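Quick start: read one record
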Amino acid sequence: MRVLVTGGSGFVGQRLCPALIAQGHEVLVVSRTPHKVRERLPRECDIRDSAQAFIDSPPDALVNLAGESIAAKRWSDSQKKRLTRSRIEMTEQLVSLCEQLGENGQPLPKVLISGSAMGYYGDQGDKRVTEDTSPHDEFAHRLCAEWEAAAKSIENMGVRLAILRIGLVLGAGGGTLQKMLPPFKLGLGGRFGDGRQFMPWIHRDDLVEAIMFLLNDASLSGAFNGSAPHPVTNAEFTRTLARQLHRPAVLPVPACVLKAGLGEMSQLLLTGADMRPERLEAAGFRFQYPTLEKALAAILSPERSA
């Protein structure tokens, strides 16, 4: 297949693109700065500056992972707009590409795998969360809901849509662990607030496999939770990470400090959801890293032996 990937130079995309190539697919990547991301991607990737630039070589499938990091900056009103715009505009580009292909009588992609996030559900306390759980209304939910709604319009053209609500992505060299590791390696890590909030997570390799799984099974559509089957609380995550690094984790960060420093964005650290991949597992997907212990052991073993 010819697979068009947005966000291909990001933390997940950098692993997804070579995996697709290894399976014999042709990979097309959208990046606003093709010359800057070239070195991060396999040389076989065809990188162009917009989805519309591929109108002359229609893709068979679309994978939409683009979007500014939700935790990069404090949530001012202008930053909230940027976060929403970065997701909606790229999604609309893909919808527009399909519209143009249809108008030209060219074949449309068979499927769009579109990213979303665990934030769709908002704060769920300790309630078990599946794809059918009603969301809690807050900014993270509204952001994800708008993102998903933009993608859903593609179904009107007969394109299969699978939405992947992604948990915290764990892997070496980036993602959630990149900011957490330095203090934990120094023995300065600790839980956030009371530590009872859930942290749904997924190993980057499992996320890549889940995307491929959804690409290849034409019977799968709708929303899927992209997280490991054994989510943990923040306190458990903290203990497990410290144990893997053979360091203590005795310096909790009080909720009031996070709220003062981060404002509304502190919700990302102080609330969560016990999110389960019910639909993925029911479809037959099997995780290589179902437990946090196994995932962190695989990610951190090269560092421990270095």
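The two ends are 39 Å apart (CA to CA).
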